[in-house]
Amino acid sequence: MTEVGQGESAAAWLSDKGGAMEEALSELVNVNSYTENVEGGNKVGGLLKSVFEIEGLETNRVASKRFADHLVVSSTWTTVGQSPIALIGHHDTVFPPGAFEGYRRDGDLARGPGVLDMKGGLVVIAWALRALAEVGGLQMLPGVRVVIVSDEEVGSPEGKDVIGNVIRGAHCALVFEAGRKNDLVITRRKGTGSIRALVTGKAAHAGNAHKEGVNAVWALAKLVDRAQGLTDYDRGVTVNVGKIGGGTSKNTVPESAEAHIDFRYETRADGDKVVRDMLRAAEESARAVAGARIELDGGVARVPLEKTAASTKLMEQYGLAAKASGLGFGEAPLIGGGSDASTAHALGIPAIDGLGPRGSGFHTKEEQIEIATLVPKAQALARFLISMV
Hints:
- By secondary structure, this protein is of the alpha+beta class.
- 34% of the residues lie in helices and 22% in strands.
- The strands form four sheets. It has a six-stranded mixed sheet, sandwiched between helices.
- A hairpin with a 7-residue loop joins strand 1 and strand 2 (70-75).
- The chain starts with a helix and ends with a helix.
């Protein structure tokens, strides 16, 4: 059978698998896997191990020091001289236990934490690979590396290295974050960063010894103003001081204060510039309040996902498979949020993103997917994979 025939056979095999895909998704969503919920995350990992029990693939856990274990699914065959295809996802979610729980079908929609972001995408990956295995097409591929990390929602502090170790040298990377309206493919994401500012002053009684104190909150206020001023919408740079704290009582000069700062940017150069500008702002703010000291922790977390000639070609090739599967196709606008697609891009691997089931409301209690897109998304992936032979 030709490669095209294998792809069409896989798509045909998938045509009546919507019920099985939804059942697997409901089991995954019904287990809370908030990033800090290690027990729940590991339970979902066990469910995923069963979901990826496919002939020709093996699943291994990568132990975590802080989060649930990460998962790596790899092809068992070796194709000399060819690079594998990387498929990337995560199984952690953003809602702690008790905040937003359980899978619920609502007509043509499925609702629940992670149904879109991104347990639905993991089901798409698994069933596409299962379909190819069923029709004898899986081992025609040059190799497959599936990485599912457990800490993506907090920036993949461990996951970045896991991904890098597994997919380095891959031909391309597809990421199955939330599918967008009209099935638009993501080729560009902003880079992300975070900084914690720790301010030290000197405590004193606000009435009896005000002059002897060094007001850490005052120094922090000066830093907040300078930090917010680094936003440059024309360049796509945003800086947001999202959380502050400090002091002990209104009649005590505060000896300490802190702030947590998020920043986004479109180019690596601008990310580095924000960090330099923040260091200068901290020095200036500390000098403005005699005796204050400001220390900064953090910096660039994820580099941007930038569009390249190779990722454009990858998007177009996936687009052919998407259209053949009855899906829409087009390029999404620049996305402000980060993902592990940026990790692949930083390794020089062409990457596209947003290939999970179509839906909306990720990171909200309105999170949902269009159930009818599960099958065509898996068909599109199966067709795309076989086109790489």
